[in-house]
Amino acid sequence: MRRFALIAACVFGGAALLGGAAEAHANYVRSNPASDARLVKAPTEIRIEFSEPPDPRGSDIQVLDGSGKRYDRGDVGASGDPNGLRVSVEPITEGGYLVAWTARSAVDGHTTKGNFAFVVGNGPLPAVPDIGGSAPPPTTLEIVGRALSYAGIALGLGTAFFVLFVAPAGVEPRRESSLLLIAGGLIVAGSLALMFDQGAKLPPRLGIMLAVRAFAGLVLAAISVTPRLALMRPVGALAGGGIMTIGPLATFRPRRMIALAAGVAAAMTATLVSHATALGSLKSMTLDFAHVLAVSVWTGGVVALLWCVLLTRPDRTAEDARALGATVWRFSVTALVATALLITAGVLQALDRLVLIDDLYETPYGIALAVKIVLVLVALAIGAFNLLRWGPRLRAGIRARTALIRDTVAETAIFVVIIVAAAFLTAFAPPAQPSAAAYDQTQHVAGLRLEMLVASGGAGRNTYVLRVHQGLTPVTRAEKVAFRFTMIEHDMGEQELAATERAPGEYVANGSPTAMYGTWKIQTIVRLQGKEDVSTVFTFPVGAPTGGGATTSQALTVGPYTMIVFTDPATVQSGAPVTIFGVLIGADGNPVTGKPIRATFSGPSAQAPIDATEDAATLGPGRYKFAIAGLDAGTWKVAIAVGNEGTGAYSLVVSR
User: Fold this and answer.
1) Confidence of residue 590 (pLDDT cuts 50, 70, 90)
2) C-alpha distances in Å from residue 229, one per residue of 1, 220, 225, 310
3) Could you give the count of Cα atoms lying within 13 Å of 309 in the half-sphere of its Cβ?
4) pTM summary value
C-alpha cells in the first residue's frame, strides 16, 4: 500500500502540474470595440477576451463590411491578456462592420464561433448572420477518439483494480494480460485519433495531455507483454536454510499496481480536458475525477469478472459454486459503492451544467446525458438482478454460472453504448456556459425556451437580448418581441422596448429604461404568427456594475433629492456627441418632475452651462437630459443644480 500511495501521489502531482484548471470551450466575454458599439473614430485593432485561453494558431478574427470585404490584416495573435486575442485593422471609413471570430481552446481543442457588429460614425448596425451555433458539432474522428480512450481507461483501470482487490487467487495471467493489452491499445489509438483530429493546430497543452494518456496506454500494453520474471523482485526469506516462495497474486502485485497507476494517470488526463474543470474549481475537478474512477471500476470490473473468472471457473460442485459466489459477492459490493459514487457525482455535475430540466431534451448535451442516464439505469438493473438472484444461488452451492455469464455479457454490451454516449457528451458544450452578460437567466414557457441577457448590471443605457428556442430550433421571424419594464420598489411607470432580430432566435433592444438603482421586472412578450402571445417576467437587479458591461452611472445627492446620472454612449470619446441623462428621485422614492435643472462644466476647455430638458412621454417620469455637441479629452467635473435646492457633482472621463 505504501508503494501504491507513492505511485498515486506521483501520478496526481504530475498530472496537476501539467494540467491546471481548464475550461471546455473558449466563450466570448467582452471585446474592444464592444458589441453594437458606435464609434466616432475607426479602430486600428480588434481585441476579444474569452472565458479561457484560446490558441492563436487555430483561431481567427475577420473584420468585414456590408459587402463581405475583409479589412483585418490576418495577424491574429495574443493580446497580452491570458484569455485574449487581437487582430490589426486596415484603415476603414464610416459605416457598419461585422467581426466574425473563431476561437480554438488551448485546453481541449474545442472550437467556438461567434460574431458581433459595430458602427463607425452614423448609420445602422449590420445584420448579424446565422453561424449555425456557437460550437460546431464534433467530427466523427473526435467521437471515435474519445470513445476508444474512455473504453481503454475503463478497461485498464477496472481490470487492474479487480485483480488487485476483488479477484480470487490464481487468476490466469494470460487472460489478465490480454485485457491490459487491449486497454493499452485502445488508449493509444484513441489518443492518436484525437491528435489527428486536431492536426497541425493541436494546442500544446492538449497535446501534452494526450501524450501523457498515450504513454499510460503504452505502459499498460508493455506490462501485458513483459515476461513474468522480468517484473519480479527476488522475494523471500531464509527459513531453515531454504527459501519461502510467494503465491501467484503476490508475485504479480507490483505489476498490477503499476497498471492501476497507469489507469489512474489516463483517467486524470480525461478530467483535465473535460467540461468538469470549466468552472476552474477544485469541486468540479474532484467530482469529474470521482465520476471517471467510479465508472471505470464498475464497467472495467464487469469485463474482468466475465473474462478472468466467470469463463474460467466452473460451478460443477457445490464448493465451486460457493467459491464463485464469494467472488461475485465481493464484486457486487464494490460495484454498489462505485455506483453510489457515480450517481452522486453525476447528479452534482448535472446541477452545475444544466440550466433547466428541459435541457435534457432541448440541448445536444442534455440529450446525450439523458441517453447515458437511461443506459446506466438499465445496466444497474441487470447488476442488481445478478446480485439478488444469481449471487445468493451460487453462495448456496446452486449452479447459476451460465445465467450469470449471459447477464454479464448483456451488461457489457450496454457499457459499450454508454461509452459512446459519453464520447458525444464530452464533445458537446453544456447549457450552463460562461456569458458576457451581467444578467443571464432562462425560463421555459409554453414550449419555448427563453434566455434573457442584459449586458450591464448598472443603471443607464443597456443592451437587452432574448434568445428564443423551440426544442433544438431557434425561433425566427417572430411577429413581435418586446420588453416591458417596471420597478418594484417605486412607481417609475412602465416603459416598453421593441426588439429586432439580430440573428436566428436572438432578439435585441437598446435603451435606458432601467435608469434607477433597484429591482426591475422585465416582462418579455413573444408573438408568433397564428399563436397567442407567450409572456414571462424576469427579475433584474440594478446596482453596482458587474460583468463585462461598461457604465458611467453615478448616484448623486442633490439637496433633498437623489439623482441617478449616466451618459449615452457609456464610453465618451473626444469630440463625439454625448447625452447626459439624470433621473431625479424624491425622498419618498418616486420620480420628481417639473424641476429646473442646470449643468455647469469645468474641465480641459470651456463649455457653456446647459439646461436640462424633460420629456416624460419619451424618457419616462423624472427623467432629464443634457445634449452636448462634444467635449475635449480629459476629466470633467459637472455640477448639477436642481433650482436653488441643491447641487451635486458628477465626474466624467472623456477618452481620446
Assistant:
1) confident
2) 22, 17, 12, 27
3) 27
4) 0.61
